[in-house]
Amino acid sequence: MTRRQHFVIILILGTLTTISPFSIDMYLPGFPAIAKDLHTSIAQVQLSLTAYLVGIAVGQLIYGPLLDRFGRKLPLYAGLFLYLVASIGCALTTSIETLILMRLLQALGGCVGLVAAQALVRDLFPISEIAQVMSLLTLVLAVSPMIAPTVGSYTTVAWGWHSIFLILAVITVFILVGVHFALPNGKAPDDSLSLRPAAVLGNFFMVLKQPQFLTYALVSGTATSASFAYISGSPDVFINLYRMSEQQYGWLFSALAVALIAPTQMNRFLLKRFTSEQIIYVTLLYQCAVGLLMVLGTWAGWFGQYGLIVMLFLFLCGQGLTGPNSTALSLAPFSRHAGSAAALMGSFRMAFGAVVSGLVSVLHNHTAIPMVGVMCGCALSGLVALLIGRRVIQGENHQKTIGAVSEATL
């Protein structure tokens, strides 16, 4: 693989992973306008985000087996086309109920990019390079929060929130062209894999029985879902509570996205000296400490608008380290069932994200406490999952060692 091919592949895979973040981040500044236009509340508009996350969680479980059975390209085409149609539906909606439904369908289509990109990384790159490639993908992923909210805020002011979804549809057309002409096919279709429910569930169960996968999928799902609490709660906190304009909020969201980019690139250098396991453990300890201080300071009134922004920046720095390392460790044990493994891991992440965003909506009390409290809870849950999971992995490895010694003795 030449350097140019390597760059093009990373770029296309990165754009596939940004479909969902763009779909989430770009319309956040439009929340107040959507609520006003559809004669509903901010809390109801937040449910359209929850619906999107539910669609991603469910859709990935569908695409995982399809990607293993039919190869990577065919399911990609189908999912991206559904996303394109649903985006146009979102643009034409006139009620919050229809918007929630269209967002669900949009997620069911767009989530194919998340699963396929991760499966293709496992197909096209050696295991030793997966964590570094994931870091590069996260860099592309991290750029979207810098661009999307700013574009969304100015688009909302200039042409109305409906135009946001038309822009997403146009972007999808360009991604389809890139996938067709420049992306390698990856793993070939496997006719031996059955799509019968019993067989599909059996494959998922086989993946779940792998302690390393389950541990780091849960760590990824719980810890990284903190960003969804921030995404769901920040429009209300900064636009309604602190009276920012849509444009100011867009720039703030872009600035905080830097907290994801710098650690992501630092991860590539950290991996030369430390293992992914070590990086995740230290990062979660750091996030728990920052999260507890953020909750205490918000409750006690220590932070104003700018103090809260600083604490959010410090907390979000950990997201850029936990995500790529936990993803690499989750996928490492698999080759044939990489699609199913990527689907399960992504489903865990988005299912937790849906619960978290819904929880922020339910706990809404016109303060920042629900947002920062849930964010802190995510980091603490991730640390607990890591500590328990590591003991299970060590126990299994110990049993395998004993079994190997016994067989050698016999």
Automatic annotation (TrEMBL):
Domain of life: Bacteria
TM annotation in the entry: 7-29, 49-67, 74-94, 100-121, 133-152, 158-183, 213-231, 251-271, 278-297, 303-321, 342-363, 369-389
The keyword Flavoprotein is annotated on this UniProt entry: no
Main location: membrane
Major facilitator superfamily (MFS) profile domain segment(s): 9-393
Keywords: Cell membrane, Membrane, Transmembrane, Transmembrane helix, Transport
Subcellular location: Cell membrane
Membrane topology term: Multi-pass membrane protein
Pfam family, one: MFS_1
Family under the similarity heading: Belongs to the major facilitator superfamily. Bcr/CmlA family.
Name of protein: Multidrug effflux MFS transporter
Organism: Spirosoma liriopis
Lineage: Bacteria, Pseudomonadati, Bacteroidota, Cytophagia, Cytophagales
